Amino acid sequence: MMEKDAKIYVAGHRGMVGSAIIRQLEKQGYHNIITRTHKEVNLCRQTEVEEFFAAERPDYVFLAAAKVGGIMANNEALADFMYDNMTLEMNVIHEAWKNGCKKLLFLGSSCIYPRMAPQPMPESCLLTSELEKTNEAYALAKISGLKYCEYLNRQYGTDYISVMPTNLYGPNDNYHPEHSHVLPALIRRFHEAKEAGLREVVCWGTGTPMREFLYVDDLADACVYLMNNYSGNETVNVGTGKELTIKDLTEVVARVIGFEGEVKWDSTKPDGTPRKLLDVRKLEGLGWKYKTELEEGIRLAYEDFLNNPMRAER
C-alpha cells in the first residue's frame, strides 16, 4: 500500500489520464504529489529526466505521459509517435529504477494487442500475431515500455506494473477535429452541428466496428487500486467488458447532445480494427469493477466540454 505521505510523481498530469489520477489520489488522501510541465521537464530529454529524478527521488510513479492521437494522427505521424513515446517511457522508467522508486505503474493502450486478437482480448494474447497497421508505431512503443518494466522486475527485482486501458473519454479530453479519438471527436462534431442548425453529420467509416469505452475517472480509480493491490509481470486490462458499434455510439452521443439530424457514413475513410473488447476477468478477480455507465459518462464529458471552451482548440 502507498503511504499517504509518500512522494508520488504523476507524469503527464495535464493530460486526461494524468489529471484524473491526481483527482483520485487527492480524493483518497494522498497529498505529496509531484508534477512537472513539459516546459519544466521535457521527458524526451534524458538529461532533464536524470536531473529531475536525482533531485526529487519519488517513492511511486504513475507514468501517464504519452504522445496520443486518433486514427489520422497515428497514421500520418508514425515516426513521431514511435520516437516520442519510446523515448519518454525509457527515460522515466530507467530513472525511476536508478533512483530507487518503490513502485511504478506504466499506462499502455489496448492497441498493443493483435489486430485479429481473440475477443474479448486476454492479456495473454500480446505478441501472438500482427498489429493494426494504422497505430502500429504507437503500439510498438507501448509494448516496449511494458516489456522494459517486466525485464526490470525479472533482472533487478523491481515492482513495476503495466495497465492496459480500453478506449478512454472524460474531463480534459482532446477535442481537436483531426487529432482526437472517436468519442471526443463525435462530441465536438454533434455539438457544432447542433449549434449551426445542421440537419446532417458525416462520420468516418462504416459504423460497424465494435468498441469499448471507459470513463477516465474509473480508470484512475483502477490505477490507484492496482498500485496498492497488484504486483506481477503480466499487464492488467482495464475496461468495462461491454462493447457497442460505432453507429450505436453516435446515437448515444447525439441523444446526449440533443442533435436530431441524420448521420451519414463516409466509407472511404478507415474503420480501424474491426473489434476491440478487453477481457477484464483478471481485474475483476482482483476485486475492481467500473462504476460509470456510458451515457452518464458522455453526459459528464459533454458538460466538461461546454464548461471549458478551450478544449475545442486543442
Would you give an account of this structure?
This protein is an alpha/beta fold and 314 residues long. It contains 10 helices and 13 strands. The model has no long low-confidence stretch (mean pLDDT 93). The two termini are 37 Å apart. It has helices at residues 16-27, 46-56, 71-76, 78-98, 136-156, 182-196, 216-229, 246-257, 281-285, 294-307; strands spanning 8-11, 33-34, 60-63, 103-107, 160-165, 167-169, 200-204, 210-211, 213-215, 236-238, 244-245, 262-266, 275-276. Helix 5 (136-156) links the parallel strand 4 (103-107) and strand 5. Helix 1 (16-27) packs across helix 7, helix 4 packs parallel to helix 5 (136-156) and helix 8 crosses helix 10. The strands form 4 sheets. The chain has a 6-stranded parallel sheet, sandwiched between helices.
Largest sheet: 6 strands, parallel
Figure out the total of helices: 10
Gyration radius over CA: 19 Å
Strand sequence of the main sheet, in spatial order? 2-1-3-4-5-10
Hey, roughly how much beta strand do the residues contain?
Answer: 5-15%
Helix fraction by DSSP (H/I, runs of at least 4): 40-55%
Structural class: alpha/beta
Low-pLDDT regions: none
How many strand segments?
13
State the separation between the terminal residues, measured CA to CA.
Answer: 37 Å
Order of helices and strands: EHEHEHHEHEEHEEEHEEHEEHH
Categorize the overall geometry.
globular
Q: What is the overall pLDDT average?
A: 93
